[in-house]
């Protein structure tokens, strides 16, 4: 009996030691995978913030170059004209306030009244930098408790020196609204260590500790503990239901906005995977050890014991194989999430249009055609908003979510897509033919998502005809109970039509700057998200044709 107890004790100790070793190894491996995904998410969040602020910085520079701003020094009429321009700008961009300031700091014109008080330190610092001829920035809290980011753009005299400064106040809360509540938890700390921007409102205003942790703003909030796991910074916190209790702390410096981006990635999934693997390893060891003990104790039943062992090992092998398949699938989904950073080429066309409108606006300003310049500014604002909506739709697609479909006009959506691809079509020497009915074609769908699908189909068609002659692109709009949009080209056609909508399948050359194989897969999901269908086929006369079919509106056609 004592020998059996010793064997049992040795088996239990060995199982516990092996399970603990497996847990630690699997936990470290899972944390490293979470770090890769967290760094990708942190990079996306940082790029999103800097991109949002860059739009307002460009707006400050453009407004400062407007003749109405330069004319503010010509008495009351000049001041009224400048204030009208500033009011027009903030109404269309969501800017909190804008003002024209003399180098001395005196306000010459403002979209909204400013208090008669000394400039706050963050505004004064931005003004000092603008007086030196550089673009000044600053951030702080207004008297009303609003968090703002300030741009100070200098305007120069023709003979040299700063003639005036344009101040722009950006409401930080408006920037946060678009991504508040997203995962993971992300916050941005300034040079003083204050949490100034975050998608978790409960930690706003907290302080960064000297060791890199956070000091809660509420003295009654629980403290945090930190430990190093394989060189990674792991936090244990209890700061509310929307923050992970075990979190990986990742950091990225953002010198362009004088802040530091930090994120708290939930480590619980990695811990669960490690526990599962440790439990499986321990179970396998216990089964093997128990079986060996039974075989040793019962020599006469060796054949029966061996059969039982084989059955159990086979069952455990099947379970491990199933678990491995699930982990492989999870790895594929994680890779797809990380590859979303490469989807920036979907925004190339709006960016090209913004650049063209900006160049045209500058030419119109130089020629004194302010009304035409204002039209270009409006288009820039519209395209910037559209880019934001495209990004939101891409994120919704990745999460298998969709915005509710609504009534749209297909002709207007088609015009938008053609406008965004017009320069590319002309550059490649492609002949465009558009066939459409005279009246409107209503359908049920998503305007931005459908425009994105059409832009992708058109640019794919242009790419496919790069080595073909002639290069003819035909876009056909059909009404009826099931409205359709057909995009046909004269390229080489589709090599494998049955795979054309598979993720990462591409007909473009390996190593090309474009052609990740995600465009048509994403288009497929976007069309399905509002109840439509998309098909691709080879035409009998040569080339490929893609058809987008939508749900019609009652009475259409």
From TrEMBL:
PANTHER family attached to this UniProt entry: C4-DICARBOXYLATE TRANSPORT SENSOR PROTEIN DCTB (PTHR43065:SF46), SENSOR HISTIDINE KINASE (PTHR43065)
PROSITE patterns, sorted: HIS_KIN
Catalytic activity: ATP + protein L-histidine = ADP + protein N-phospho-L-histidine
Enzyme Commission numbers on file: 2.7.13.3
Main location: membrane
Assigned GO CC terms: plasma membrane
Organismal lineage: Bacteria, Pseudomonadati, Pseudomonadota, Alphaproteobacteria, Rhodobacterales
InterPro entries associated with the record: HATPase_C_sf, HATPase_dom, His_kinase_dom, HisK_dim/P_dom, HisK_dim/P_sf, Sig_transdc_His_kin-like_C, Sig_transdc_His_kinase_DctB
The keyword Kinase is assigned to this record: yes
This protein's UniProt keywords: ATP-binding, Cell inner membrane, Cell membrane, Kinase, Membrane, Nucleotide-binding, Phosphoprotein, Transferase, Transmembrane, Transmembrane helix, Two-component regulatory system
EC supergroup of this enzyme: transferase
Membrane topology: Multi-pass membrane protein
Biological role: Member of the two-component regulatory system DctB/DctD involved in the transport of C4-dicarboxylates. DctB functions as a membrane-associated protein kinase that phosphorylates DctD in response to environmental signals.
Histidine kinase domain sequence ranges: 342-554
Name this polypeptide is given: C4-dicarboxylate transport sensor protein DctB
Pfam families xref list: HATPase_c, HisKA
Localization: Cell inner membrane
Segments forming a coiled coil: none
Superkingdom of the source species: Bacteria
Transmembrane segment boundaries: 274-295
Gene Ontology MF annotations: ATP binding; phosphorelay sensor kinase activity
């Amino acid at each position: 009996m004592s020998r059996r107890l010793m064997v049992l004790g040795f088996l239990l100790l060995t199982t516990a030691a092996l399970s603990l070793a497996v847990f630690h190894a699997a936990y470290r491996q899972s944390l490293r995978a979470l770090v890769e995904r967290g760094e990708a998410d942190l990079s996306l969040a940082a790029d999103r913030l800097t991109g949002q602020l860059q739009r307002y910085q460009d707006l400050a520079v453009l407004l400062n170059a407007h003749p109405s701003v330069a004319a503010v020094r010509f008495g009351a009429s000049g001041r009224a004209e400048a204030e009208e321009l500033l009011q027009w700008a903030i109404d269309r961009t969501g800017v909190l306030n804008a003002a024209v300031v003399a180098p001395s700091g005196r306000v010459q014109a403002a979209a909204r009244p400013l208090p008669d008080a000394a400039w706050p330190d963050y505004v004064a610092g931005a003004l000092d930098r603008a007086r030196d001829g550089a673009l000044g920035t600053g951030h702080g809290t207004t008297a009303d408790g609003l968090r703002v980011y300030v741009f100070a753009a200098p305007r120069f005299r023709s003979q040299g020196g700063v003639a005036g400064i344009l101040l722009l106040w950006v409401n930080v809360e408006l920037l946060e609204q678009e991504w508040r509540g997203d995962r993971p938890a992300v916050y941005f700390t300034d040079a003083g260590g204050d949490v100034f921007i975050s998608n978790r409102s409960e930690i706003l205003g907290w302080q960064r500790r000297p060791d890199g942790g956070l000091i809660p703003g509420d003295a009654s909030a629980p403290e945090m503990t930190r430990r190093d796991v394989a060189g990674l910074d792991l936090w244990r916190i209890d700061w509310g239901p929307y923050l992970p209790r075990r979190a990986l702390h990742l950091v990225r410096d953002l010198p362009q906005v004088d802040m530091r981006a930090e994120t708290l990635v939930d480590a619980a999934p990695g811990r669960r995977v490690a526990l599962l693997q440790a439990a499986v390893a321990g179970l396998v060891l216990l089964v093997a050890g128990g079986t060996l003990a039974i075989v040793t104790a019962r020599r006469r039943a060796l054949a029966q014991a061996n059969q039982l062992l084989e059955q159990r090992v086979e069952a455990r092998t099947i379970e491990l194989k199933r678990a491995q398949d699930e982990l492989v699938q999870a790895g594929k989904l994680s890779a797809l999430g990380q590859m979303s950073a490469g989807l920036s080429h979907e925004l190339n066309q709006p960016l090209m249009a913004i650049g063209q409108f900006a160049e045209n606006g500058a030419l119109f300003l130089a020629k004194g055609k302010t009304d035409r310049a204002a039209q270009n500014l409006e288009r820039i604002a519209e395209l910037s908003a559209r880019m934001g909506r495209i990004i939101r739709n891409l994120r919704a697609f990745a999460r298998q979510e969709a915005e509710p479909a609504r009534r749209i006009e297909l002709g207007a959506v088609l015009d938008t897509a053609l406008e965004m691809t017009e320069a590319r079509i002309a550059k490649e020497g492609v002949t465009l033919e558009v066939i459409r009915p005279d009246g409107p074609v209503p359908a049920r769908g998503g305007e931005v998502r459908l425009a994105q699908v059409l832009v992708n189909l058109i640019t794919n068609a242009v790419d496919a005809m790069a080595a073909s002659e002639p290069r003819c692109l035909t876009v056909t709009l059909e009404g009826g109970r099931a409205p359709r949009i057909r995009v046909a080209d004269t390229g080489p056609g589709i090599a494998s039509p049955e795979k054309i909508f598979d993720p990462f399948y591409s007909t473009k050359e390996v190593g090309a700057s474009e052609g990740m194989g995600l465009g048509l897969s994403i288009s497929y999901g976007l069309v399905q998200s509002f109840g439509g269908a998309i098909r691709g086929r080879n035409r009998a006369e040569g080339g490929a044709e893609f058809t987008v079919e939508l749900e019609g509106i009652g009475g259409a056609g």
